[in-house]
Q: What sequence folds into this?
């Protein structure tokens, strides 16, 4: 290659650039396909200028840089069109050299130099095309790799999210499956840790005193925290903030000096449990990888779980409250049923006693009363002590006992012992433990042992009108056996018993009085019969006058 000739050719091309560019652009426009529009004229000019800057030694780095700066879609132009453009440039140069070559076209090497220039142009433009295609391919590969990685990440996140949703669904099913609070807390903790991939989790509830207590803790790092009340020094600031603000609080790394019961050097999440504007507690979760798992989606899932937890806690509270109310109601119904049963038995006993008191035989009456009370109350010991009108002592007239205790063997003065106190004060007495009652005595007024040293007793005065006729006593070897229901029973029948005793005593008194009068009358009749026989045996007349001078008696001699 003749360097001198080549230099002359370049100088000529620079000098006639406008004519060459115009002729080249026109040739390109005629030969360009309709599917691909030709490059703008400004780009044709810059391509031409870039080709002229190529050094003679063939180093086209500067030329490639200039071509690279052109915003040309070389791939859209296509390699055949680029080669065709190069030959169109040669045709344009040849046609202008023929008319304006100034003798340059007569040079024997000009044709070779022009071919070399066109060859370099084809090489340069082809290289630019290849670079552009490779760049496009590299970009497409990068985009494809990005899309693949993005799709893989999206698939992983989608699978992870689907797994979380599945676990949360199971968690929701668990929360709604039962209303047993303890059973629910046993199940929900492990599912919660599986759903969010945490190592430890705790349910911390606010107490009515304004403090905090760990209701339940799950995970091996927290084996002994369940039921622990947190003092002021053990309450993390994030827990207080979550409760006061009602928002999630995240601690990326718990410092050892601030750990307390928390796990040091791990992340901690505090999720408030809010019921309207009232804080019930917090869910606390910890994991060494918690900071990598916290995002908006995870936060929303934690909020959803917290809301479900609040509903579940409220439902279990209401359920337990209803259970307690039902239990209380059942207890009250059972208690009321027992009271009604006792009342029925009491009324039946009163009716039986009312039938029994129709008898006027006092001993039969009192023994029937004691037996009826024994059947009703379940006691084996009792007595009815009546006031002896002659001595004023309380004497046991009827006795219910497992021993061979005889009626009338025990006597108490008024005010002596529990029975004497009842008669004197005209008030009932319920002694839960006779050993602790100062009124209790071991012997009666005559030193006779009462035969009882332990247990309980109940006594009721028997009052007829204004008079105390006696005392009804029941006793049992068991301490605190008697209660107010026994008092009500004795009070209900005491008046009737007292009246029956009074009537029986009156009947007994009238019977004794009648017998006495009958005996006196019989004695008088016997004496009168004897006197009349003596009087009739006299031969002398005998007439007996009353104070008013009426004849009371006359013998047969007087009648003659």
A:
């Amino acid at each position: 290659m003749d360097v001198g000739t080549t230099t002359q050719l370049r100088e000529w091309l620079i000098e006639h650039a406008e004519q060459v560019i115009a002729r080249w652009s026109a040739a390109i426009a005629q030969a360009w396909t309709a599917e691909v529009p030709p490059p703008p004229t400004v780009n044709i000019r810059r391509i031409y200028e870039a080709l002229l800057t190529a050094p003679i030694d063939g180093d086209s780095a500067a030329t490639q840089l200039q071509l690279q700066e052109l915003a040309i879609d070389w791939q859209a132009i296509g390699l055949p069109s680029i080669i065709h453009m190069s030959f169109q440039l040669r045709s344009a140069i040849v046609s202008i050299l023929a008319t304006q070559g100034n003798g340059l076209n007569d040079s024997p090497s000009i044709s070779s130099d022009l071919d070399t220039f066109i060859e370099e142009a084809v090489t340069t433009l082809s290289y630019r095309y290849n670079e552009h295609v490779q760049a496009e391919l590299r970009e497409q590969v990068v985009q494809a790799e990005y899309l693949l990685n993005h799709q893989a990440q999206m698939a992983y996140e989608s699978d992870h999210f689907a797994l979380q949703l599945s676990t949360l669904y199971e968690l929701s099913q668990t929360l709604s499956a039962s209303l047993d609070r303890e059973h629910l807390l046993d199940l929900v903790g492990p599912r919660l840790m599986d759903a969010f991939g945490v190592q430890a989790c705790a349910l911390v509830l606010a107490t009515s005193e304004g403090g905090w207590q760990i209701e339940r803790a799950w995970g091996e790092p927290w084996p002994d925290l369940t039921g622990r009340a947190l003092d002021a020094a053990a309450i993390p600031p994030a827990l207080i903030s979550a409760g006061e603000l009602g928002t999630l609080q995240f601690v990326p790394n718990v410092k050892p000096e601030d750990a307390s019961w928390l796990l040091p050097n791990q992340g901690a999440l505090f999720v408030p449990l809010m019921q309207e504007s009232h804080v019930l507690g917090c869910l606390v979760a910890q994991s060494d990888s918690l900071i990598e798992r916290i995002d908006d989606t995870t936060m929303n899932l934690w909020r959803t779980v917290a809301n479900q937890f609040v509903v579940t806690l409220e439902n279990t509270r209401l359920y337990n409250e209803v259970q307690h109310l039902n239990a209380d109601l059942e207890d009250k119904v059972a208690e009321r049923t027992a009271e009604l049963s006792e009342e029925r038995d009491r009324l039946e006993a009163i009716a039986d006693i009312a039938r029994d008191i129709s008898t006027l035989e006092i001993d039969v009456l009192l023994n029937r009363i004691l037996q009826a009370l024994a059947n009703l109350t379940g006691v084996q010991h009792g007595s009815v002590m009546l006031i002896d009108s002659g001595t004023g002592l309380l004497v046991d007239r009827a006795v219910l006992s497992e021993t061979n205790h005889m009626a009338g063997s025990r006597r108490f003065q008024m005010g002596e012992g529990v029975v004497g106190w009842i008669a004197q004060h005209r008030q009932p007495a319920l002694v839960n433990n006779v050993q602790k009652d100062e009124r209790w005595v071991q012997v009666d007024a005559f030193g006779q042992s009462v035969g009882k040293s332990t247990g309980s007793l109940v006594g009721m005065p028997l009052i007829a009108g204004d008079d105390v006729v006696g005392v009804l006593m029941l006793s049992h070897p068991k301490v605190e056996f008697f209660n107010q229901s026994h008092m009500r029973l004795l009070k209900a029948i005491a008046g009737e018993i007292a009246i029956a005793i009074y009537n029986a005593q009156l009947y007994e008194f009238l019977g004794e009085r009648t017998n006495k009068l009958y005996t006196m009358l019989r004695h008088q009749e016997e004496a009168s019969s004897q006197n009349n026989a003596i009087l009739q045996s006299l031969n002398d007349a005998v007439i007996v006058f009353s104070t008013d001078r009426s004849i009371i008696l006359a013998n047969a001699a007087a009648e003659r």
Q: What stands out?
A: The chain has a mean pLDDT of 78. The domain at 180-323 is CATH 3.30.450.40 (Beta-Lactamase). The chain has three domains: 3-146, 180-323, 357-511. The two ends are 220 Å apart (CA to CA).
